[in-house]
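re: ur question from earlier - yeah i can do the single chain one, its not a big deal. heres the input i used so u can compare w yours
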Amino acid sequence: MPEYMEPVIERSKHFTRPETKAGGIRANKPGPPYARHTQQILKGNFAAAEGARLSRAGFIPAYPITPQTTIIESIATMIRNGKMDATFINMDSEHSVFAAAMGGAQAGERVFTATSGQGLFYAHEVLHAIAHFRLPMVVCNVGRPSIPWNIWSDQSDSIAQRDTGWVQFYGESGQEVLDSILQGYVLAEELDIPVMVVLDAFYQSHTSENVWVPDQDLVDAFLPEKPVRGTEIDLTHPKSMGGMVSPEHYEDFNYTYWKDINRVEDLTNRIGKAFGDQFGRPYGAIEAINIHPGTKKILITLATITTTARGVVTNHPDVGILKVRLFKPFPRKSIVDLLMTSGIDPETCQLITVDRNFLGDNEGALHQEMRRALYGHQFKLYGIFAGLGGKDIPPVTIQKVIDRKLEDPNEIIWIDNE
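and the output i got, formated as tokens:
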């Protein structure tokens, strides 16, 4: 049996709506049964492959790179075994992969691929082209760093692409990755903007979890066939794509993009709610955990760090978590609305970003984005670096963050190096 086809654990016959706030199902929890789903034990990479299959992606250009290789291997196996109707092409590099993805999307196909680390860096030029050609697609990036050479978990590769124009979602669990791929296609095809779903290397990509895999007809009702825009390649009506444009037209292209990228946050929340109505697992741009008028510290997290923090804060009724799921464009409205309506005291509550990336600046990217989002508000924001290059972030590290006496918001702390 191929590794991705691990045994089915339970076939759901009854539906019970989970008690979960916007943001998604908790990681590492089997959860309640979902109607018209099959519960399986899947690694995060295989959950991503299932998401591509269920989305009926029809064109898969690919190139292997650790630690994402098993995503495309799983898809290739499903195509060979007749479980997935798609064209799979093994390209000669990640630059070629994304160039082929661009061509497939221009031809009107629903495109999926996956990459990681240096592969994503190598494709940087084409990422800009895909976004600004307004080509909808979903790709997965399994986050790892660059130099010194490393294949373990880090978010520097994907966050380094935040200015390419792609929407970025960060998953906490295999379930969230699968669900975000389905939602990502709805968003991408509504706005004609590409979507990147990011997994933490190994902690998520190679960790087995309980994942509810929905039936195909349930997904088809949520994600219909890819719409035809009339802008696709049509050999009977040739058209030019790309080429040089004047400054006036260049600004017009970017103005229309700007208008649509500003719709992403609200649309993410709307699609996440509709997903909850259809599948029983609601999502949003952010998720609030234990944030209330008595909260004294709020950890701001991306991806799998959240799961560890969830366990630690159960022993701290005055510590909350603000999980950021939509990283790009940054969900400023959702964050400010949460903080302004939660009843926390901005004079006494400390907001603490936990960054698993270093991009050559004083602050991590999450801290930078939070500073921008909170501009004009009186919240106290503190920055922590932790877990770079795959260094483990066990509960004791989260406890150190909580226990640390924070006095100077201008001090950036490397919690592992003290």
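The longest helix spans residues 174-191. not sure if urs matches, ping me
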